Structures are given as structure tokens and as C-alpha cells.
Amino acid sequence: MRKAVVLLALVLSTGLFAGCDDGGPSGVTLADLVGSWIGDEFEFTNQANPAESVDLVAAGAVVTMTVASNGRYTIGAADPLGSGADFIKGAMLVEEGFLLATNDDEPGETAAFSVQLTANRLTIFTDEVDYDFDVPPDGINEPADLLAVFEFATGLTAADLAGTWEATEFRFVSTPTPTDTIDVIAQGGGLSVTVAADASYELTLMLPGEVPEIQSGVALLFGDMIVMIDEVSPEGSIRFEYGLAGQTITLRGEDSIDFNDPPDGVDEPAVVELVMELQ
Prior knowledge:
Structural class: mainly beta
């Protein structure tokens, strides 16, 4: 499949979009869109050759959209079997049946989508996007239509995790040598993550002997997985299996770290184990 980053580089980065209809359905409000949505279809169609289309969801990408009551939104996409992941975030409103959205990476630009909402099914459309239909991509985008269909998420979503979480257990276990471990909490380190209602997050990572590091991005949930998509390096996103019981979440993922003391600058693959409490 094509990497999910293709989706996010195109959806809201080409400036002003105009929906194909002169007007949208009445009665749709921003309040109707608040919550998390799971992509059921995300299809680009070549305007010059309508027989040529690419549906990223059908190709295997997981796409989610989370909308907060203040209009802030995130759209995250990930390849569940690989490392491809990316996101966009911004603000939206609904006006005269059109969904108007801004992208934080494109200040001053507004995208307009025709929008329909039937029960828990949201459909948005625009006829003014570009997409590279070549395989492999040749870097040349062609005019395209975009049809996106989302289903309202009824299970646990990133928005349900809104709040600040503090790690009470945090360790790295060497994959090649499981007896090698680093207990971050015992060595004076820590991890704090604040999740917003639009699924964006900011974390403060304190590893022993290192300067605290602040990261931000978007949390994407699908099945029993959470993908933490880093804003600076989305290709380095970390996937965690998770379990939630009350105000305690357990996370298990894969990363790499230098287990040598003193460090020799060579990272080894490791399992990350976390227990975090909602503050």
C-alpha cells in the first residue's frame, strides 16, 4: 500500500477547496461532528481518467478523525503493519452545509468540503485536490476528486483519554538480551503525557542522565493499538498495545535505547513497558 503520509500531505495542503455542490444539507452543525470517526473510505479519483482511483482505506491504511467541541480537529493515518504514519491538525466549522477547515501547517488557507451526515455516517467531498496516481509515485500530482466516508466511533477513542497521565512504571527491556533492563522511574526519570480532546498530545520525557525532552503529536487508536505519531518525525511513530482499567493504562511497544553504562552511542532494540495513571 502507499504510505499514509501521502494522504495527509494532500488533503489540506493545497489551499482552498470548493465542494462540487452549490449548497450543502441543512441542519448539520459542528456539534454533530464532535467525537472520533473511523475512516471507511478515503478515495481519490483522477479527474482526467475517472476509471483510475485509489482508496487508501481499502489499501490498508487506518484513518481517524477526532473533533473537539471548540472546533479543533486532528486526522491521523497509519499503516497498521508498518511504520508509515502521519497527521494533520487545525480548526473547523460548518457553514451553510459546508465543512470549512484550516490546517495548522498552512496558515491563512481554508479548505471547503461538501458534507452529509446520516445517522452515524459522515461523508465529505471536494473536487479540487491533487494526487499522484503513479506507482511508484513520480512526484507529479494530477487534479482529483476526494471522497471520504467516516463512521462514528463507538468504542474507546483517543478523546476518551483526554487529561494528563503520569508514568508509575516505565522500563526498557533489551530485545536481544532480556536480562538487560532500564527502570526509568527507579533511576529518577519519568514520563508525563497530556492528551487533548482533539487527540493531540504533548509529552515530557525524562530519561536518566539526559535533558528532559518535550514532544507533541497525535494519538491514533485502532483495535488494541495506540499509535503515537510524533509531529517532528512521524516516520518514527511508536505503536503500543494497550489496556485500560479505570484510570490506569498499560502500554507495551517497541523502541530502541543505549543499554551501556556509560553509554557508547549504540542503541539496541527494546520493548517499552509503561503503566500510567490519570491525574
